[in-house]
Specification:
Layout: E1 6-8, H1 24-33, H2 40-59, H3 66-75, H4 82-95, H5 100-113, H6 115-134, H7 138-153, H8 159-171, H9 175-195, H10 197-209, H11 218-232, E2 274-276, H12 279-315
């Protein structure tokens, strides 16, 4: 873990240029003039560059380029930029829920290498879920619920978190809360069959009695009936991890168990530039960490390629 003595710097500082337009030629000259890494100006420009790089990588990720994006992300100091990374991933998933399994797979690899980043993203998701659920913000809550479900599937979050969320949603059933529970179950039901069949049985036992609730409309009652059919088919139409996205062995993953009682500390200050008195030292530490990670990834790729080649030879 990198350590540093940092000084919080407000965005209102007179030196801040992030929101001001500067012609590219002038910007390049200014960047070239900043060579002293101990200065506020250099570190601020480096921070802004890191933010743009992370945003660019996350916004173009998909299932086909995921390994490339992961490799590129590790090139960046994502320990320093962990707040930016967490914010960007969460916002990208909200904007494109269809890519939720891809974003979850991305986080699973990051979490394996940097569990503190996985924990940060998990805490922010849990906080977002609780906040949007309390506000009855259905659109955002649905997206967040779906993301949490895939964190369960990827073993980033413990299955007990899933059961606690379901208990919360079914505690005071409404049409909206039941819909959220159904969406959540469809996304991680297959995983729960594997890791917590008794817990899943208990949830479905509760659901079985809900159609008798007069407050539920016919559409919600129909959704419950469909869900039972989905479960009967063992959620085959809703695989926990789609093909090509199972990137981390569950035995190698660091799994977080986060309480739902209170809003988690989201550490929003990590999203804001902070001056680092030990900047060069911490950057050098990350370079060493990066070398180790990339060497490990290369070894894994070579083993995978070797196994594939051996299989091809045997099949001939």
């Amino acid at each position: 873990m990198l350590t540093s003595k940092v000084t919080y710097v407000s965005r209102s500082s007179s030196q801040y240029t992030g929101n001001l337009y500067m012609p590219p030629a002038k910007l390049r000259l200014l960047q070239a003039s900043l060579t002293d890494k101990s200065t506020l100006e250099y570190q601020r420009f480096a921070w802004e560059a890191l933010e743009k790089t992370i945003n660019g990588r996350i916004n173009k990720v998909n299932i086909s380029n995921l390994p490339i994006i992961i490799h590129e992300l590790f090139q960046d100091n994502i320990i320093r930029g962990r707040g930016l990374l967490a914010h960007c991933i969460i916002q990208a998933q909200i904007a494109s829920p269809i890519y939720t399994p891809v974003y979850a797979a991305l986080v699973s690899v990051i979490n394996k290498k940097f569990s503190q980043i996985g924990e940060l993203i998990s805490k922010r998701l849990i906080s977002s879920f609780l906040r949007t659920y309390q506000r009855n913000d259905k659109t955002y809550c649905l997206a967040t619920t779906k993301f949490i479900a895939h964190f369960i599937n990827q073993n980033i979050l413990h299955e007990i978190v899933a059961l606690k969320i379901l208990v919360l949603l079914l505690e005071k059933p409404s049409n909206d809360s039941i819909e959220l529970a159904i969406v959540f179950l469809k996304e991680c039901g297959q995983k729960l069959i594997e890791v917590s069949p008794r817990g899943l049985d208990s949830i479905f036992s509760t659901l079985r009695n809900l159609p008798n609730e007069s407050r539920l409309n016919k559409h919600t009652q129909y959704m419950i009936e469909v869900l039972f059919d989905v479960r009967k088919d063992k959620f085959k139409g809703h695989p926990s991890i789609p093909s090509g996205l199972d990137l981390v062995n569950k035995n190698d993953q660091y799994t977080h168990n986060i309480e739902l009682k209170d809003l988690c500390e989201s550490e929003a200050i990590l999203d804001i530039f902070q001056y680092d008195e030990q900047y060069e030292e911490n950057e050098a530490k990350y370079v060493e960490i990066r070398k180790k990670i990339l060497d490990e990834n290369n070894d894994d790729e070579e083993k995978s390629h070797s196994s594939s080649s051996d299989g091809d030879e045997e099949s001939k």
